[in-house]
Amino acid sequence: MAPPILEVQGFGKQFCLHEQGKVIPSAQGVSFKVLPGQLTALIGATGIGKSSVLKGIYRTYLPFAGRVVYRSADGSMEDLQVASEHRILELRRGEISFVTQFLHCLPRKATLDVVSQPLLAQGLLGAEAQGRAEELLRAMKLPERLWSVSPATFSGGERQRVNLARGFISRPRLLLLDEPTASLDSDTAECVIRLIHGLKAAGTGMLAIFHQTDMTQRLADQVLELTPPVPLPEPAGAAA
Predict the structure, then answer these.
(1) Does residue 112 sit within a domain?
(2) Is residue 110 part of a domain?
(3) What is the Rg, in whole angstroms, of the alpha carbon atoms belonging to the chain?
(4) Domain CATH for 10
(5) Tally of domains in the chain
(6) Residue 112 and residue 133: Cα distance in Å, rounded?
(7) Beta strand extents in 39-153 (DSSP E only)
């Protein structure tokens, strides 16, 4: 069996509300592995910290406990929680992709440019990058008339198609998915399932949160249920 792409050990996250003197616990004691060509699904109640785990791996958040050990393409292993900002950006450009619940992009940037940007950042020529973007947008069934328009004007489902195409296009080694099909119709969701299977076959390891239970059943090779965090004592001096 191939070694894991990612190994999370005792991950924990909490949020400090300094003005109120309160600490809000999120995910605690989370440990798992992500293998190449497999999808690990995180499940659990709303607010239990599933998205916090994904954001911690991507380094949007810094945890208060645990390690996030990533095996890069050259076989080296590093804890993403202590890696430099430069290294994190380098990995995001070349090896790690994150499809969030919301698309963030410049308001005047055409959809085709939004989707092809990850490939341009890797040094691909514009024509090749745009060709790959066109293929994915067709697979996502986004009408060609919208390709030259900014996705800022799109509906929620159309924006998510663009979001997914941008996340898939670089064929990352590690792909993080936060409820990727929640705003899609059933036909488009089936397209996404086929693309996920294609990425798995190519060796991409995935960590995903799905809104629909049937998506977890159809796509997950491993399922990890997060347990409720233990309430933490309030900091000294907090109001009674």
Answers:
(1) no
(2) no
(3) 19
(4) 3.40.50.300
(5) 1
(6) 6
(7) 39-43, 65-71, 77-79, 96-99
d(CA 158, CA 142): 7
**Tens digit of each residue's pLDDT (9 = 90 or more) over 137-188:** 999 999 999 999 999 889 989 999 999 999 999 999 999 999 998 888 899 9
Tokens representing residue 185 in the block: 């119709």
pTM above 0.70, yes or no: yes
Specify if 178 maps to a domain: yes
Residue 80 located in a structural domain: yes
Spatial distance between the Cα atoms of 217 and 213, rounded to a whole number of angstroms = 6
Q: Which domain holds residue 218?
A: 6-95+172-225
Token pair 């697979």 in the structure block, residue: 139
Residue 103 CA to residue 73 CA, distance in Å, equals 27
CA 178, 218, 223, 179: dihedral to nearest 10 degrees? 10
Q: Tell me the C-alpha distance between 38 and 96, whole Å.
A: 15
Backbone torsions φ then ψ of 34, nearest 5 degrees: -115, 125
Q: Residues 15-66: pLDDT tens digits?
A: 777 677 777 777 888 999 999 999 999 998 888 889 999 999 999 988 888 9
67 backbone dihedrals φ, ψ, rounded to 5°: -130, 150
Comparing CA positions, the residue from 2, 144, 123, 10 lying closest to residue 68 is 10
- Any idea of the CA torsion for 145, 107, 127, 116, to the nearest 10 degrees? -100
Question: What stretch of H or E contains 146?
Answer: none
